[in-house]
Specification:
Elements: H1 2-18, H2 28-47, H3 58-85, H4 94-98, E1 108-111, E2 115-118, E3 127-131, E4 136-146, E5 149-156, E6 159-164, E7 168-172, H5 191-197, H6 203-219, H7 225-239, H8 267-270, H9 282-292, H10 306-319, H11 323-326, H12 331-342, H13 348-362
Antiparallel strand pairs: 1-4, 1-7, 2-3, 4-5, 5-6
């Protein structure tokens, strides 16, 4: 619990340190950071016992804190990138130079419709220039995500800025440098596609996960564009872009939940959410392990490994017959996928954004 608070403090301080280097127009991000700090402090006081907090709300408070951490991280990333482009040109960290970007530096991009070039990677940033349909700019090689879009760094007479990937297309220039590939069978998801859907996922982790992910999708018949898009969207939300393979909360909120098969003392913690789809409850661990041929009930932490976590996600998807709803390719169909995974519609906007992004990346 306190470790989570330290993570948030570190991210907020890192973001604040960037404030002095960004343009005055971007200082509004400071207000967002201040708001995050205030909200986090309220949650901290609740969890530390300074305010009365019912047992049933502990899990929700921890989830809220986790959301704030992700928001702070996003602001920090934006400020770092904005700091880089204030110099004569973008300066990229070594890790980014070695990684596969969405579109390589120097590629010519053409606007498919009128689109705004913004000073930062979000619609909340100021407009530096409006490109008319057919106008071209050069990619700086940077790509990222915020505000429900994939964003591409571009350069032109306006200097440097960012455009939504939805409204530009490649028309010339150097080919994107591929990431160190994990061999993928024809039709399988590639590392590049995975990282375009989940831009915060590192190249190393993407390569570590891609084989397990493709095997799980193949086993669960998640083989079409619509099915992959829905599956990736749900995993991206549940695991914060494959960052968390184990629920941050203790699991005490699930103690005594007979509907989850938690009938023995300690089952709540023992069978807390794990894997990229956050499998929860003794009954689910038992059933998944039985069908996959591994004793997850006796060794629940295996569900938090890449080897078994993706298989568990595929098992959950298959046993809930979610492909039929993904095949509809409609908001209503995807909403039903969300309901069957979540039990409701928590995080709906975030899930919907990942779904639209995945469909754009995969082409459906």
């Amino acid at each position: 619990m306190r470790g989570t608070g330290f993570v948030l403090i570190a991210l907020v301080l890192a973001a604040a340190l960037c404030i002095s280097a960004v343009s005055a127009a971007d200082l509004k991000l400071f207000d967002k950071i201040t708001s995050i700090v205030k909200k986090a402090d309220v949650i901290r006081r609740r969890l530390d016992g300074e305010e009365v907090l019912s047992e049933n709300n502990v899990n929700k408070s921890l989830k809220d804190l986790n959301i704030l951490i992700k928001k702070a991280q996003a602001i920090k990333n934006i400020l770092v990138e904005e700091q880089n482009v204030l110099a004569d040109g973008p300066v990229y960290p070594e890790e980014e130079v070695q990684s596969d970007s969405m579109i390589a530096a120097g590629v010519t991009l053409q606007a498919t419709t009128a689109v705004n070039v913004r000073s930062g990677a979000c619609t909340s940033f100021g407009v530096k220039r409006t490109l008319n349909a057919g106008e071209t700019v050069k990619s700086t090689g940077w790509s990222g995500s915020d505000c429900g879009h994939l964003w591409i760094g571009v350069s032109g007479s306006f200097g440097y800025g960012y455009v939504s990937s939805l409204y530009v297309k490649e028309v010339g220039g150097p080919s994107p440098t591929p990431s160190p590939p994990s061999p993928s069978p024809s039709g399988s998801l590639t590392v590049d596609q995975l990282r375009r859907v989940m831009p915060n996922l590192s190249v190393g982790k993407a390569n570590e996960y891609i084989g397990h992910l493709n095997n799980a999708m193949s086993w669960a018949s998640i083989t079409t564009c619509l099915r992959k898009s829905a599956f990736l969207a749900q995993l991206a939300h549940e695991s914060a872009q494959l960052y968390y393979f184990e629920e941050i909360a203790s699991g005490d909120a699930y103690e005594g939940r007979k509907d989850l098969g938690n009938i023995y003392p300690g089952d709540g913690r023992r069978y807390k959410g794990r894997g990229p789809i956050q499998l929860t409850g003794r009954a689910n661990y038992r059933a998944a392990g039985r069908d996959l041929g591994v004793d997850l009930e006796g060794n629940p932490t295996l569900a938090a490994t890449a080897q078994w976590g993706f298989k568990v996600a595929g098992w959950y998807w298959k046993t809930r017959s979610l492909n039929q709803f993904a095949d509809q390719g409609t908001q209503g169909g995807f909403d039903e996928v969300t309901r069957r995974i979540n039990g409701g519609y928590n995080g709906k906007a975030d899930r919907d954004n990942y779904w639209r992004r995945a469909r754009s990346v995969l082409g459906c």
